[in-house]
Sequence to fold (290 residues):
Amino acid sequence: MRDSKKRVIWIWSSIICLGAIILVNIVFHPLNESLAKNNPKQESSALPGDTNTQQQQQQAQEQTKEEIVPPKDITPQEESYPLPLGKLIDNIPTKDNKTIYLTFDDGPGEYTKEVASILQQHGAHASFFWIGNQVTDELGKFGHQMIEQGNIIGSHTMRHDALGKENGAKQKSDLTQTAAFISSKVNHPVVYMRPPYGSVNKETREVSKELGEYIMFWQVDSLDWSLAHNPEKILANIKNGGVKPGSIILMHERKQTVEMLPKVIEYLQGKGYTLAALPSHPIQKETKQK
Ligand SMILES: [Zn+2]
Fold:
């Protein structure tokens, strides 16, 4: 009898416990559900992934803005600089009135590394106008390093073509191809172009404007390419070439240029000039339509 009584008590206890559990579940279930419903909402507004994405997007937007309009208190070559598209630019005035621009055409090739090394040793930067079909993977990688060191690489067409003798469609195709090819090799956008032989026509201006590529000319010609047997004359040409603040100086990746480059840099720095690369963030300067 005792055993059966115990069993009855045990059974009833079990039933009551079970009932209690079910009751608790019924009472709290809707709450749980509403909590569960609320949670994803809360999470969706504070979902770590989403928030990060939003923040990243915001940061990316801010970075883009910064690229277009960077703060005013950074070095001149990093400052966004208004340049006229479709014009032949030979001088870039700067606020400090001390900046000038060495430019090297016809690379890349066997002298590229020496030129880059001499610039670095002298705390100088420069801009290089490369011929597309000379840019190997290896030179492209080196070009990327040069850019990271503060230099600029622009386009000198795919095959050193005289653009001024071509129609607009051919120029557009060449310039588009060259910029895409060089930028893929150096992993950096190409926004500057120097026409080989300085050869341009009306279409060159129009196409450059359309492509957003600035046409870079020069104010001082070192004539270095013609001075293989008289390298000293390179320095003399620069000394007598009327260098002034903002001047763009034309040189080439040549043996005699490498030979004279330290003297050229020391002379210009001795005059108080900073040798800078072309502005890394050019923006279009509005010009009157002609
Ligand atoms: Zn050239």
